[in-house]
Amino acid sequence: TLVSAASVTISGCLPEVDLVEGATRQLTGSVIPAGALQTGTWASDDELIATVSGTGLVTAVAAGTANITFTSTDGSFVSTCVVTVV
């Protein structure tokens, strides 16, 4: 039986690394506790800087900073990873 989500985390974000244009970085969203529904949605607040796929693959587009978020399906908990493109 599933338990309710309490929070979310993003792994692959730290240590913070500057990405060059065209580079990619795989992020993984996890819902806590482990027995909760492990699904969520990815979003970028500035797709002109960095895009993110439905599986958490970030692609650097142009110089700047973008916030990549993972939001849990259960409870709408949010975790954010700041991506800097140089």
Topology:
Layout: E1 7-11, E2 24-26, E3 28-32, E4 40-44, E5 50-52, E6 57-60, E7 64-72, E8 78-85
Antiparallel strand pairs: 1-3, 2-6, 4-7, 5-6, 7-8
Provide a compact summary of the structure.
This protein is mostly beta strands and 86 residues long.
Structure description:
The chain is mostly beta strands. The protein is 0% helix and 49% strand. The chain has no helices and 8 strands. The strands form 3 sheets. It has a 3-stranded antiparallel β-sheet, with no helix packed on it. Strands 4-7-8 form a 3-stranded antiparallel β-sheet, with no helix packed on it. It is elongated. The mean pLDDT is 95.
Largest sheet: 3 strands, antiparallel
Strand order within the widest beta sheet = 2-6-5
Q: Say how many strands there are.
A: 8
Query: What structural class is derived from the secondary structure elements?
Result: mainly beta
Termini separation (Å)?
Answer: 45 Å
Mean pLDDT over the residues: 95
Indicate the overall shape.
elongated
Share of helical residues: under 10%
Query: Which regions are unreliable across 5 or more consecutive residues at pLDDT < 50?
Result: none
Number of helices: 0
Proportion of residues in extended strands: over 45%
What is the element string, with H for helices and E for strands? EEEEEEEE
Q: Determine Rg (CA atoms, Å).
A: 13 Å
Name its key features.
86 residues, 3-stranded antiparallel β-sheet, elongated, single chain, mainly beta
